[in-house]
C-alpha cells in the first residue's frame, strides 16, 4: 500500500475518533458544558502540520478531560534522532495520533488514559495503549477491565494481551517511588509487522476504550464518596503528574518535536497534592 494512503487512513481515523469520543463525553455531561477547542500549527513559518486539542473542565462528571489530535511532520532535532528508529539514517518524520486523558470529579471513578499513533521515518509503526489509574481499590472493576482488554487482544493475536500487559506494567511504573501508576492495561510500540492487521488492531483499541470509559463511568457515577476519598484522589493525581513529567514518552516526544505545549500538558490534572 502506498505510504501516502497509509497516512491518510490513519490520520482520518484518529480525527474521526476524536469526534466520536468528544460526542460521548458531551452526552455524559448532558450537553450542558462544551469543550474548549484550540487548533495549532507546529511551525508558523512553514507547513509542518499541527492539530487540535479539546479540553472540557468543571463538568458534573469530569474535573478535566482532554482529547488531543495531531498530524505533524518535519525533521527531528539532532539530539533526538538517535532515540527514534530509522531517524539516524534520515531525520525526516511524519506522525499522527490521538491522546485522551480523563480526570474525574467522583474519586471512585478512576482516571483513564488512551492513545494511539502512527509514525513514519525510514520505518513505519503503530503504538499506543489503554490504562486506568484508580485512587481506591476495586478488584472486581480491575478484573472486568483486564478481561475486556484480553478479549479484544485475543481477537487479533493470542500473544498480544500478556505481552502488552507486561509492557504496560513495566512502562507505567514510578521508579523513584517503586510503585505502579495504576492497575495497568496494555501498552504497545513499534508494531510494524503488517499494516492492514496492525491498523485493524489500533482501530479496535480505540473502540474498546470508548466502550470501557462509558461502562465504568455509568456504573460508578452515582456512588457516594467521602472527603477522605477525595484526598486520596489528589495524592494519586500527584503521582500521575510525576510520571507524566519524568517518564512519559509522549510528553517527551511532543515537546522535543515542536508540539503544542498546552496540548501536550493537557494530561496533567487540574488539582493535585503531595505529602
Your description of this structure?
This protein is of the alpha+beta class. It has helices at residues 3-28, 78-81, 139-154, 160-171, 195-220, 227-246, 249-256, 261-264; strands spanning 36-41, 49-57, 62-75, 92-104, 111-120, 124-133, 173-174, 179-180, 185-191. It has one domain (3-267): 3-Layer(aba) Sandwich (oxygen-dependent coproporphyrinogen oxidase), CATH 3.40.1500. The mean pLDDT is 94.
What characteristics describe this protein?
275 residues, alpha+beta, oxygen-dependent coproporphyrinogen oxidase, 7-stranded antiparallel β-sheet, two-stranded antiparallel ribbon, 8 helices, 9 strands, 42% helix, globular
Task: Furnish the topology, listing elements before pairings.
Elements: H1 3-28, E1 36-41, E2 49-57, E3 62-75, H2 78-81, E4 92-104, E5 111-120, E6 124-133, H3 139-154, H4 160-171, E7 173-174, E8 179-180, E9 185-191, H5 195-220, H6 227-246, H7 249-256, H8 261-264
Antiparallel strand pairs: 1-2, 2-3, 3-4, 4-5, 5-6, 6-9, 7-8
Helix pairs in contact: 1-5, 3-5
Just name the CATH architecture. Answer: 3-Layer(aba) Sandwich
Main β sheet profile: 7 strands, antiparallel
Taken as a percent bin, the fraction of beta residues is 25-35%
How many DSSP helices? 8
How many structurally independent domains?
Answer: 1
Q: Summarize the helix and strand pattern as letters.
A: HEEEHEEEHHEEEHHHH
Q: What percent of the residues sit in helical stretches (DSSP H or I)?
A: 40-55%
By CATH, the topology is oxygen-dependent coproporphyrinogen oxidase
What is the residue-averaged pLDDT? Answer: 94
Give the full name of the CATH homologous superfamily: Coproporphyrinogen III oxidase, aerobic
Say what oligomer this is.
single chain
Name the overall outline. globular
